[in-house]
Amino acid sequence: MLGRRLYSTAARYVTAARPTDGFVGAIGNTPLVRIGSLSRETGCEILGKAEFMNPGGSVKDRAALFVVEDAERRGLIRPGGTIVEGTAGNTGIGLAHVCRAKGYKCVIYMPDTQSREKMDLLRMLGADVRAVPAVAFDNPDNYNHQARRHAEALDNAAWTNQFDNPANRQAHIETTGPEIWAQTGGRVDGFTCATGTGGTLAGTTRFLKEASDGRVRAFAADPPGSVIYSYIRSGGRTMERGGSSITEGIGQGRITANLQPDIHLVDDALKIPDADTLRMLYRLLDEEGIYLGASSALNVVAAYEMAKALGPGKTVVTILADGAYRYQSRLFSRAWLESKGLADAIPAHLQKYVVL
Ligand code: PMP
């Protein structure tokens, strides 16, 4: 009798799917989390897609899997080959996991400005990490061009080219978008997120616009130092940078091939200052118990502003791209925050979280 009672309890609570096919089978199908405090404040439903719960810890696991499987399908890589990529870190971490699981070698080029945690993790996952000086895309020594040249010089190697490879946005057309649609029962009014490669914004927007016959509104969320805000607000006429930001993995200086086909679908853009991002990051930790990286906090600020713009009763979805674990030596360090002029951005009652 006990067994039967426990079985019925399990049937009521367990929603998890059947066993997955290893690491790659566990990518995606992340929870959609209601952010209660902000939903109450705006009278809207503010929902975050918990991408930090992917097995490699970020939204970029989805793109990593799609670009590797695209290279396999196109015959660019054979068993025992090498995947080479330029990345701020999260795509590299996703790729390092996927490569271990599929038996490929993995070479990662990244700007030397990125956090220590991401570089250490990549090395622990067996990637060959090349930290190179952070120079602009039009400089031949930019990390992406170095990754391309590295792959070209090797036999049986593929440069997955996440910025301009449409397999990246395809991951979000085929998985992120449909998941959000299914999880909200189609009751979604707004979507917003920031741009690194633009795969998440472009792919998810494309799916949600098509599924809703254009009804879902899409806003790009942009940090200072990125041209996306200026590009969208000016109808594609200007690309002003304006400043710099502490947010890692987002901000873009050009319209990538992932953005190109869909950026006209994005209705508007929001520019979010670092102080607002940081305040939200600490606030979500304090009020919701969610430990998020800075790009996620920026996305939530954008979702909050979008909710206020759309008005009460609406549902706005954003992306919780990764967790703070990857940046904690910076985001929770008083010395680091002071060095960025941001220590005062954190209100007195949240200063207790600055523990390093
Ligand atoms: N947030 C974080 C933490 C990231 O690492 C990235 C990707 N670099 C993004 C957001 C942006 O995702 P996408 O490349 O799909 O624009």
UniProtKB/TrEMBL annotation:
What keyword terms does UniProt attach to this protein? Transferase
Stated name of the protein:
Cysteine synthase 1
List its EC numbers.
2.5.1.47
List the gene name: CYS17
Q: Does the keyword Transferase apply?
A: yes
Organism placement in taxonomy: Eukaryota, Fungi, Fungi incertae sedis, Zoopagomycota, Kickxellomycotina
